[in-house]
Amino acid sequence: MARVLLVYPRMKTLAPRFPYSVLPIAGALIEAGHLVNILDAQVEDLSDVDPKEFDIVGISTYSGPQIGSAIETAAFVRQRAPDTLLVWGGVHPTITPHQTIMHPLVDVVVKGEGEQTLLNIIEAVESSTSLRNVPGLTFIDNGELVDTGNAEFIDLDSLPFLPYQLIKPDRYVHFKEKPSRVYFESSRGCPHNCGFCYNEAVHRRKWRYKSVSRVLDELEYIIDTLGVDEIWPSDDNFAVSKARVVEIARGKVERGLGFKWVMSSRFDYSARYDNEFLQLLKESGCDWLTFGGESGSQKILDMICKGISPEKMRETTKLLKASGIICGVNFMAGFPIETTDDLQLTFNLIDELVSIDPELEPGITIYTPYPGTPLYPEALSRGFKEPCSLEDWGKCSFGVVDNLPWLDRRRRNLVRTVGLLSSFGFTAPRYRRPRVLEGKKFLSLVYHFLSLSARFRWKHRFFSPAPEWRFLDWALKMFGFWER
C-alpha cells in the first residue's frame, strides 16, 4: 500500500478553479487500496501537509503560471522529504515531457491519462522493478533520457466514482451553505482539430465516452453524496453524439434528477437540433448551451479549422432564441494573420447575435499560443518566443497580448481592451453582479462602474484612450492575476 499526495497547484485567477484533474486519479488509487490525500494549493497551504508522510507526490499542471506553484510545491517536498518520488502529470508535462524531465524537481513525467499509469508506477516501485516497463513515462535513468512511449487509453466506465470527500467544497466560489455546483466528466477528447486546442496532442483526436447508464449512475451518486443544485460536464466536447445526449437527458428525466446543467456544443452540430430535442434538454434541466464562435471572419475560421461560418452562428442563435434556451458564445482575438478588419467583423457579428437574442452571453478571450496546438508553429514563425525551461513556462502569462508579437501597437491596445471589458457584461441589457462578488460591496461597486464603461465603450466602439482599463490591466498583473 502506497501513501500518495496529489497536488493541484495554485493558479493566478480571481477565483479558485474546481480541481477536477486530480479527482479521477485519487479515485483509482483509493479503489486499488492506496492511501490518498489531495492538496489544492489554491485554497490550502503547503504547511497543511507533511511530505514525509507520503511515498509519492503527484503534481498536475497546465501550461503557464500554475507551473510556478508546482515548482514551489516540488521544492517544498524535496527539502523536507528528499526520498519522496515527485511525479508530474497533466497537460503541460504530457506535451513537453523531455523539457519537463530536465528540471531537478521532476523525477518522473506521466504522459496522458494518469489513473492506470500511476498505479503501474507504484507497482514497479513496490516490487523494485524498472520503470522502463511502464508505458506512458519519461524519466532519467543513469543520465539517460528514457521515454517509454504512450500508454493505452483507459476504459472510462472502469473508473470509480469521484471521491469528492477529499476536497473542501466550502472553499470554492460556487459552494456556500451547501455545494451548489459541481463538475463531472462524461467523456474525454474531441474528434475535431481546432487550431488553438490541445486535444490533438493529448487525446490524439479521439473521443471516448462513458456509457449512458454509467453517466446516469454517476449523476445519481453526486446528488446523493453532495445534494447539489447544478452539475456541469467538464468534457472537452460533451455533444459529439446527439443520440447519446438524448439518452442522457431522457434518463435524467426518468430518474427524477432535478439539477440544472449546461451543455457545451458546436455550431456545426446545431444543424441536427430541432425543437423536440431542445425541449427535451430544457425538460432535463439544461437551459444554457455554449458554443465556440471564435471569429466573425470566415478567413480566420478557415485558418483555425473551425468548420463553421458566421451564417451558421446566426441560424443557431435564432433556433435557441425560439426555444427559450440561453446561448453563450465565446470569441477570440489576436490570431496570427488577423487584421483590424477581421476584428471588426467579429465585433459586428457579436452585435448581430445580440440583436437576435438580447439574452445571448458573448465573451472575448485573447488567443494564446499553447504548445502542442496546431497553430503553435505559426505563432513561433511570427515571433512568439518559446520558453526554454519549465521555470520559463511558469513565468508565462496567458490570455494577454504580451504573447502576440505580430500585433502592432494599435491592435495590441484594441485586443487588450476588448479582452478585458468582455468580462463585464459588455452587451448585457442590464447590470448583473457575478456570483463571486456576493457580499463584497467595494468590489461590486467597482464591477458596476466597469460594466457601465464596458457597455458604453462597446456601443460606441470607443476603445482608446481607455485609462480605466489600462489601470485594471496593471492592477491584475500587480496582484498576480495573470489569467482571467
Describe the structure.
The chain has 484 residues and is an alpha/beta fold. It has a domain at 3-147: Cobalamin-binding domain (Rossmann fold, 3-Layer(aba) Sandwich). Helices cover 37% and strands 15% of the residues. It has 17 helices and 15 strands. It has helices at residues 23-31, 66-80, 91-95, 97-101, 115-126, 199-203, 212-226, 242-254, 275-283, 298-303, 310-323, 340-356, 376-381, 390-394, 409-421, 441-460, 467-478, and strands spanning 3-8, 35-40, 56-60, 85-89, 108-110, 137-141, 144-147, 181-184, 187-188, 208-209, 230-233, 261-264, 286-294, 326-333, 361-366. It has a seven-stranded mixed sheet, sandwiched between helices. The protein has a four-stranded parallel sheet with strand order 12-13-14-15. Strand 12, helix 9 and strand 13 form a beta-alpha-beta unit. Helix 1 (23-31) crosses helix 5. It is globular, with a radius of gyration of 23 Å. The relative contact order is 0.09. The mean pLDDT is 93.
Task: For this entry, give a set of tags.
484 residues, alpha/beta, Rossmann fold, seven-stranded mixed β-sheet, 15 strands, globular
Strand order of the largest sheet: 2-1-3-4-5-6-7
Strand proportion? 15-25%
Category from helices, strands and their pairing? alpha/beta
Would you identify the CATH H-level superfamily of the domain at 3-147?
A: Cobalamin-binding domain
Unreliable spans are none
Distance linking N and C termini: 40 Å
Question: Cα-atom Rg, whole angstroms?
Answer: 23 Å
What is the CATH top level name of the domain at 3-147? Answer: Alpha Beta
Summed up, the helix count is 17
Principal-axes geometry comes out as globular
Into which percent range does the helicity of residues fall? 25-40%
Number of strands: 15
- What's the mean pLDDT score? 93
